[in-house]
Task: structure prediction
Amino acid sequence: MKTLFRIAFFSLVLGVGLSLSTAVQAQVVAVDTVDEIPVPPKGMKGFTKYLLENLKYPITAREAGTQGMVVLTFVVTAEGKVASVEVLRGIGNGCDEEAVRVITKSGTWSPGMKDGKAVATRMNFPVNFKL
Result:
C-alpha cells in the first residue's frame, strides 16, 4: 500500500569545513501531495555528500556574523529537473544566493510520483546558516 506524503522531512546536519564551530543545517520538504516524494541524485546520502562538498558559508556573512535560515521553494519537474527556485525568506550577505546556487546545481532528481505517474512537485528547502 502506498503512503501519501503531505509533508516529508529529511534532516541533515552538515559541518562546513571553514571551522569546527560552523554548521549548516538543511531540510528538504515536499509541499505537494504525492505518493512518492522526489529524491535527490544518489539518494539522501549522496545529497548529504553533495551539500558537504558544495555548500559554502559566504565570507561576507561570516565576517558580518550573519546567521539564520534561508528558505527556498522550488519545483522538481516530472523530468527531475530543479526549476523555479525562489527565496521565500532570506538573511542576506550572500547566504540567499549560496542556497539558490547549491540547489540549482544539485542535478537531476527522481521525480515525485502520483498514481504511478511522474509529476512536478513543489519542494521547500530551508538552510540554517549558523556560525
About this structure: The longest helix spans residues 43-54. DSSP finds three helices and seven strands in the chain.
